[in-house]
# Entry
Amino acid sequence: MTWGRLYGISVGPGDPELLTLKALRILQTVPVVAYPAGKGDKPGLAESIIQTYLAPEQIRLPLRFPYVFESETLAEAWEAAARETFLYLSQGLDVGFACEGDGGFYGTFNYLAQTLSQNYPELIIERLPGVSSPWAAAAALGLPLTLQDQRLFILPALYHADDLDAALSQAEVVVLLKFRQVYSQVWRRLQALDLLQRAWVIEWATTPRQRIYHPLTAYPELKLSYFSLLLIQT
Amino acid sequence: MTWGRLYGISVGPGDPELLTLKALRILQTVPVVAYPAGKGDKPGLAESIIQTYLAPEQIRLPLRFPYVFESETLAEAWEAAARETFLYLSQGLDVGFACEGDGGFYGTFNYLAQTLSQNYPELIIERLPGVSSPWAAAAALGLPLTLQDQRLFILPALYHADDLDAALSQAEVVVLLKFRQVYSQVWRRLQALDLLQRAWVIEWATTPRQRIYHPLTAYPELKLSYFSLLLIQT
# Structure
């Protein structure tokens, strides 16, 4: 039997209208729809974005990806997710994996695709690009993201204050993701560099929960969700 | 009379199916559709992406943006485009400006929006984010764009070889736009750094003209179109 095909369906930052036409078509065509499982009873972001588009007969396949750094635990989770997915693919069923933002941009889809293509090199995998959070954030703020010869530096996580300084000195526009645990250090560094007026924090961009913090002078401390982004124009 | 609203409609990298649902809805609702005029008789990329979606009664407004660097010439062109656009807005008609990729990401929409909001601060401007070329390119190459803690550096143009070295030393993933005039210098630098196997050139991503060059060892010289992108995994 011919294997099904695996689609990485990027479903955008949050607003279900920010799916592409292609993403919607594939999402509504595949017999099996996979997505990262939410925590506890809550649906994950990708799941909540797509739920209105799914038909009752489509098989739902929530896949668990632990929020940890240990590479062994992660590799085990990816193997388990790959096995579950391949159960359907091996029966000739196409599987669409929905991921928030763009699946190639720090997305869990990357690890599922990597594991599956290592185990089954002949498997056909198609990636559908989508709207990712820095673009959605800039649009929601009513700002250009980048102009003319401005360089853009995206830091997915911040472990050392030095990394921020290096980025700020190299690029005219800097975007930080997953910075919430070090927010107060980042704030102090931006204060020292006189950049608080040129920095924006946006949470849950394009969703009904969207919130904007600007100028940052007023927010030396913030409790932020995972889906937060910091944009700095240097 | 109430002014019309200006929409920046990001129409994605080339495949008309990569418009978002929202972009299509707004594009088909606005009475006036503006876009960057093509050169000579040829339609521009944004125009060619949207033409199948437009109705005969929608007014087409091609706007000329010269491909030059002189800031005075550019400012004059933006003023002229803003005047033409405001003719419709002031009559209460909404105008949607279609731009390829994401309009906030080095897009001409930024300058039109800037000029109009300087001249008419009360004008309502809405930006619709879209799929931009680095994301589309990675998906078309079947690659993740970024994984885990990889930093992403986007250089919109390259004027000095030093800039490339700095980017390559700072980030795990580097994307170059508008590099075609310095391609052979970039190639030699990548050769010296042993990165030709980890570099991809993609032209016209997601369009029928798409072409991929990889590994770059085979391509010390290339004549590339404006819509080319170089992706390097360091």
Notes: The mean pLDDT of chain A is 95. The longest helix of chain A spans residues 71-89. Chain A touches chain B through 58 residues (CB under 8 Å). The longest strand of chain A covers residues 228-233.
